[in-house]
Design goal:
By secondary structure, this protein is an alpha/beta fold. The protein folds into three domains: 125 residues, Methylthiotransferase, N-terminal domain (Rossmann fold, 3-Layer(aba) Sandwich), CATH 3.40.50; 226 residues, pyruvate-formate lyase- activating enzyme (Alpha-Beta Horseshoe), CATH 3.80.30; 75 residues, OB fold (Dihydrolipoamide Acetyltransferase, E2P) (Beta Barrel). The protein is 32% helix and 21% strand. Strands 2-1-3-4-5-6 form a six-stranded parallel beta sheet, sandwiched between helices. Helix 7 runs parallel beside helix 8 and helix 11 runs parallel beside helix 12. 41% of the residues are buried. The structure holds iron/sulfur cluster. Iron/sulfur cluster (SF4) binds next to helix 5. Iron/sulfur cluster binds next to helix 5.
């Protein structure tokens, strides 16, 4: 008896359509832009309705437990979607797929998933799709690690005027609560010439702002020899004509050297904004987190930043309720928040990530205590944010306009060089422009303003400044 051959799927126009859902951080967003770029190069078009799309990709994140739960909930829902749209190919990729137990769960419990790939081999999507079309069989292909970064992938950027540029992948730090070193592998830096070319090409296409991405940008180049480092990279990129703003994320406090701070201060295109995730203010907790700095180091770095970079905004990340965190430890965190005067913070309740050392530490903190502490933490942070934002009242700031406001199509929203969100009345035609805006109402989380006649201003003259008085 002859074996039946699996049917080769013939793609019609409807099948050549896709939708990507991205969970997690900017690195994932940038990966999704590359996946989208590859698909569009193959002739695929975006289709927002999953009931009509030929391919849906879930690009997952595993930093927090509830992100995992959301992804599984999403995958579950595709059982029904596939009943309405039986030709749909469902692909799942990203950080969660770097965990063998999660892949195993998908393979055994979620037959609706057709393709599984990881963070190191998403560039293989075109071949995987092709193989799937030919064989009609589920494909699971996850590389454990990679010591190279695939260059020259087409990137389908969300905004024409600003873009992410990944400068390195991976992390060597192994903070005890974090899953990233297990999902993104060890640090691998891109060659500076490659980064320079990518940024220069973006600028030639009309981009004015780039955000350099890495888990720890301050250790950029450690794997490339003495001359290659983050400070030098900033200085090189600062020479690109017509580039207006350089941002970066994220800076590990232990690697934020004076050389990097000097480069930020001296490069006029580098925004006077630093996201410095301290996670805790208690030296004892920081040790348990394996962060390799103390409370004194934090205060010293923040002091150096403020002395050298005028008008700088500093934001942070905080984890509340790390195992063993006592009331005294928590009070140390509140003290550091007050002393550092952070513009704002992303605050997180500690959540167990299976496979990390902190998951099995003694003295896990009850949820009620975590919630009580985070509320106290937010009270302090919001008071400081409100006070800092009041200093913008009646000032004129340079805003890069990003989009129309979600709640009101007659208003625009954009960001200052210090990362403050500014909302003001305006036309969609202003999106992508750098405008001078006078702040009329400073609120805790954003600023309201009004566009001032642009002929009265010279945006370039205030490239790395504090807000300037409206009448100066
Ligand atoms: S520095 Fe720490 S928190 Fe950041 S990605 Fe690396 S291990 Fe995770």
């Amino acid at each position: 008896m002859s074996k039946k051959k699996p049917a080769q799927r013939i793609l019609n126009n409807a099948s050549r359509s896709f939708r990507i859902f991205t969970f997690g951080c900017q690195m994932n967003e940038n990966d999704s832009e590359k996946i989208s770029g590859m698909l569009k190069a193959l002739g695929y078009v975006e289709e927002m309705d999953v009931n009509k799309a030929g391919l849906v990709i879930l690009n997952t994140c595993s930093v927090r437990e509830n992100a995992d739960e959301r992804v599984f909930g999403n995958i579950g829902a595709y059982k029904t979607v596939k009943k309405n749209n039986p030709d749909l190919i469902l692909a799942v990729c990203g950080c969660m797929m770097q965990q063998p137990e999660i892949v195993n769960q998908i393979v055994t419990k979620y037959p609706q998933v057709d393709l599984v790939f990881g963070t190191h081999n998403f560039h293989q999507l075109p071949q995987m799709l092709n193989n799937y079309m030919v064989n009609g069989k589920r494909l699971v292909e996850v590389w454990e690690d990679s010591d190279t970064i695939i260059e020259d992938l087409p990137v389908d950027r969300k905004y024409p005027f600003k873009g992410f540029v990944t400068i390195m992948n991976g992390c060597n730090n192994f903070c005890t609560y974090c899953i990233v070193p297990y999902t993104r592998g060890r640090e691998v830096s891109r060659q500076p010439e490659r980064i320079f070319s990518e940024v220069a090409a973006l600028v030639a296409d009309g981009c004015v702002e780039v955000t350099l991405l890495g888990q720890n940008v301050n250790s950029y180049g450690n794997d490339l020899g003495d001359e290659v480092n983050f400070a030098n990279l900033l200085r090189q990129l600062n020479t690109i004509e017509k580039l207006k703003r350089i941002r970066f994320m994220t800076s590990h406090p232990k690697d934020l050297t004076d050389a990097v701070i000097d480069a930020i201060a001296e490069c006029d295109k580098v925004c006077n904004y630093i996201h410095l995730p301290i996670q805790s203010g208690s030296s004892r907790v920081l040790k348990a987190m394996n962060r390799k700095y103390t409370q004194d180091d934090i205060l010293n770095r923040v002091d150096a930043i403020r002395k050298k970079i005028p008008g700088v905004a500093i934001t942070t990340d905080l984890i509340v309720g790390f195992p063993g965190e006592t009331e005294e430890d928590f009070l140390e965190t509140l003290k550091v928040i007050e002393l550092c005067h952070f513009d704002s913070a992303f605050t997180f309740l500690y959540s167990i990530r299976t496979g990390t050392p902190a998951a099995t530490m003694a003295d896990q903190i009850p949820d009620s205590v975590k919630h009580e502490r985070i509320n106290r933490c937010l009270e302090v942070l919001h008071r400081i944010s409100h006070d800092i934002n009041q200093t913008y009242q009646n000032q004129v700031v340079e805003v890069l306009v990003e989009e129309t406001s979600r709640n009101n199509p007659e208003r625009l929203t954009g960001r200052t060089r210090t990362g403050k969100v500014v909302n003001f009345p305006g036309e969609p035609g202003d999106i992508g422009k750098q405008l001078m805006v006078k702040i009329t109402q400073a609120k805790t989380f954003s600023l309201d303003g009004e566009k001032i006649p642009q002929e009265d201003t010279d945006g370039a003259a205030h490239s790395n400044d504090d807000p300037i008085p409206a009448n100066s």
